[in-house]
Amino acid sequence: MPQAEVYYAQQFFTKEESDLYLQRLAEQVAWQQEEIKMFGKQLPLPRLTAWYGDKGYTYSGLYNAPQPWLPVLQELKERVEAASGDKYNSVLLNYYRHGQDSMGWHSDDEKSLGPGIASVSFGGERGFAFRHRERKDIPPVKLTLQHGSLLLMQGNTQRHWQHQLPKTSRPIAPRINLTFRNIIS
Known about the structure:
oxidoreductase, dioxygenase, single chain, Oxoglu/Fe-dep_dioxygenase_dom, AlkB-like, AlkB-like_sf
């Protein structure tokens, strides 16, 4: 991917670790059903979310006040920091309950974000795609986010590329995704 630094480890965690983390996160995280305003209406986000860490964060017009780190999140953060070489002070969690829960095309390029994001996935495998923001001659890049995988999006990736987790009509197991971030302001 030109103008990007993307690294993907399919089996960053073992199956046993991944199964345990999925269970712990589903049970211990304070999941919320947020709403956003679109087309003049309040609509529920197509997923459950939670925000933990040292600093708050605003996206899609929603302010996320930080909840204190849970031991399971601190444990995951330390493992991801050791692998990525980056430091993170916050994590956004998304709980995709089924194939209709999704995330549309976007870039995590707000001024308050550091350039590196580490994305960890547990649960049902899902398709994930990247597309270049300006160059339409570059075809989208697709991959499958697997149970226990780690995806690093570093450097200028967010400036030049968008990504999405599209809806799917095929039956799919629930999936929890954690995106570790460094809020700088």
